[in-house]
């Protein structure tokens, strides 16, 4: 679970940096970069949670 929290923090930091980059330069590439980072981060978190769930189910059986 520490890994999931760490990924959430890293994705949050990445989004803040991307949005600050957009605020400074008004370049829409920053928004696309932030969107891709958000999607990638959420996909990694979902994958880790699925592995964690499968591990818990195997331990029960």
Give me the secondary-structure topology.
Layout lengths: L1 H24 L2 H33 L1
Tally of helical segments:
2
Please estimate the helix content. Answer: over 70%
**Computed structural class:** mainly alpha
Mean pLDDT: 88
Global outline: elongated
Largest sheet: none
By DSSP, the count of extended strands is: 0
Instruction: Please give the alpha-carbon distance between the first and last residues.
Output: 21 Å
Order of helices and strands: HH
Written description of the protein model:
The protein has 61 residues and is mainly alpha-helical. The chain has 2 helices and no strands. It has helices at 2-25, 28-60. The model has no long low-confidence stretch (mean pLDDT 88).
Quick structural overview:
By secondary structure, the protein is mainly α.
Feature tags:
61 residues; mainly alpha
């Amino acid at each position: 679970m520490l890994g999931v929290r760490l990924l959430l923090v890293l994705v949050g930091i990445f989004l803040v940096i991307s949005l600050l980059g957009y605020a400074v330069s008004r370049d829409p590439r920053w928004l696309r970069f932030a969107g891709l980072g958000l999607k990638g981060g959420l996909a990694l978190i979902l994958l880790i949670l699925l592995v964690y769930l499968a591990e818990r189910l195997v331990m029960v059986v």
